[in-house]
Amino acid sequence: MYASREDIGYDFGDDSKVGSKPIKPNPNIDGGWAWMIVFSSFLVHILIMGSQMALGILNMEWLEEFNQSRGLTAWVSSLSMGITLIVGPFIGLFISMCGCRMTAIIGGILNALGWILSAYASNVHYLFLTFGVTAGIGSGMVYLPAVVMVGQYFQKRRALAQGLSTTGTGFGAFLMTALLKYLCTEFGWRNAMFIQGAISLNLCVCGALMRPLSPRYLSEKPVLRSNSEDNQARTLSHSTQTIKSNGVLGEEPEEKEKATNEEVLESVQHIEIGGNSKGGRNMYGLRILKTVSQLTVTVRKGFALWYSSYFGAASLFTNRVFVAFIIWALFAYSSFVIPFIHLPEIVKQYNLSSQNNMFPLTSIIAVVHIFGKVILGIISDLPCISTWNVFLMANFTLVTCILTLPLMQTYVGLAVVCALIGFSSGYFSLMPVVTEDLVGTKHLANAYGIIICANGISALFGPPFAGWIYDITQKYDFSFYIAGLLYMVGIIFLLIQPCIQKKQPREKSTEEAQV
After folding, report:
1. Which of 44, 108, 251, 479 is the most exposed place for a label (fewest CB within 10 A)?
2. Are 423 and 370 in contact (CB under 8 A)?
3. Which of the listed residues 191, 212, 233 is the one where a domain comes to its end?
4. Is residue 13 part of a domain?
């Protein structure tokens, strides 16, 4: 995972800036063009997250084409998935200067360029740069604004809007798996990547649909929301604290700095006026100087606010439960992405390709994942159910599936386990709620941004690690066993730390009672 809290309409517990002047509501808030924003975000989830979940198809082609180890080849997919999440906080700097729309359009071009250049790859290392880094950064530049813009356009229906847009991940994984399989069969993997690059240019259209809101229409009165998907809307990008409706960083700078900047620009304008009589060359040079001065001011403001937003959260690391949550995140996400990358080859080794072609196992995970997010979110919202307990139970179910998956060697058995993996991984919708319970609403955006980065690191190293284990043992069994055990270690950290924190106050109260 940009705007000031009041500008977006999120309640961060600070009502001191609530204005007294009534502001005319924008008809596009919770309606009108807002649904085009949802449609745009839905397509972004399909084209980015969906295609990343279907990379197992291309991974098999790369193994046959370049004849490299599975550990080395898996780095291509993991770089793309990991960088998409890891660069999230740094994309905020682009958004602060260019806005959400321009950032998304540039990201769409970069993502398409990565796909197209990868079609001419001569080795795996070439794919590291073109697909892993270039397409990965482009994906991050589109994905982040897509989440932020939905949060800006919706207040009353924010949960519904985010829920509809994020279902694009499941639909995308299902559609892109079938599409890439067909393209690779009919045209070969190189032409398939070229075609996919052309399709990815539609991300620029999605970015163009991200029309900024006018600041005068934004209500300064915060709106409270409690749904899990709503919490994800205001935290997934980490940047929703500092983006204004036009997608540009907009917290007011200090008065002294503001005055200094205005003096610089006024002096340039004065020189420009005086230079009108001296000729066109001087005018041209002065205009360049004015543009550079304005750009410098914008960059300084954006970087200062970006830096304070992302690196001003050191106090979070004094919370031992939150630190345990980070450790859990470092192990958890890899257990979800490893099956997407390596399952197609496992199916091929078990001679189940004919059955898998009818309904791919990765598509089963993707489809059931949609229902898992919705059902687990509904269950956790019940007044008699603890969100923390639902979160832990889903994690236990997922780690059990990861550990038992190597034992299944029939299509039916693998399909059942994959369905459970898809359903239990629906706990992703609960992560913002759990994070808020751990650190409070005030630090929610910063904390969730750190968790997303940890997930990106997990996605970065998980698939190559599984491939490396295969290269040593010639079996995928140990890859899933080790990943499952590391995942279990993260869950144990989550179980131990709350017990320690609850125990300490009890000991203090006992001592006070004795005194």
Report:
1. 251
2. no
3. 212
4. no
Tell me, letter by letter, the H, E, C secondary structure of 144-210: HHHHHHHHHHCCCCHHHHHHHHHCHHHHHHHHHHHHHHHHHHHHCHHHHHHHHHHHHCHHHHHHHCC
Q: Answer positive or negative: Cα dihedral of 469, 471, 472, 474.
A: positive
Exposed/middle/buried for residue 421 (C-beta within 10 Å: 0-12, 13-18, 19+): buried
Structural domain range at position 489? 312-503
Instruction: Count Cβ atoms below 10 Å from residue 125 Cβ, excluding itself.
Output: 14
DSSP three-state, residue 243: strand
Please check whether residue 303 lies inside any domain of the structure.
no
Residues 341 and 54: their CA atoms lie apart, in Å, by 8
What the block records as the tokens of 342 is: 């390596």
* Structural domain count, the chain: 2
Q: Is the dihedral of CA 169, 358, 464, 51 positive or negative?
A: negative
Distance, in Å, from the CA atom of 490 to the CA atom of 260, rounded to the nearest integer, reads 50
pLDDT in tens, 210-246: 988 765 554 443 343 434 444 444 444 444 444 444 4
pLDDT tens, residue by residue, 134-172: 999 999 899 888 877 877 787 776 656 766 787 788 888
Residue 185 pLDDT > 50, yes or no? yes
Cα-Cα-Cα-Cα dihedral sign, residues 345, 349, 350, 353 = positive
